[in-house]
Amino acid sequence: MRIEALFVLMVLLAACRPNQPRASIVPKLPVTHENLEGYWSSKEGGLAEIRFSGDSIYFIEDGQAFSYSISSDSIRFDFEYATFFYRVELPGSDQLQMTSPHMTTTYQRVRENQNTDTQSVR
After folding, report:
1. What does the alpha-carbon distance between residue 59 and residue 96 come to, in Å, rounded to a whole number?
2. Which CATH number goes with the domain that contains 44?
């Protein structure tokens, strides 16, 4: 009985450490043009791969730009012969998850001052 009580006490003390960070719940941001605005990279610390500006999405490496529209938690953009839908979640102001029927890609926001002129779409 003493060993069990000592074990319970140790578990309680470990859970009450004052310097332990507490878990916080970050509410998801609504999917709006304003919340998507900016540069995004799928690689942590990497260069921007996509940019949202107004109602356009730019694929920086390909130099392609398309208008997109928002419907609830999804975005839609049209290529010449196909329409694409991505489910979008913004778990925080610096995170973006885009899900297609085949895969989910997580992006991190890239600050504009980290971008170079070679990344701009003309």
Report:
1. 15
2. 2.40.128.280
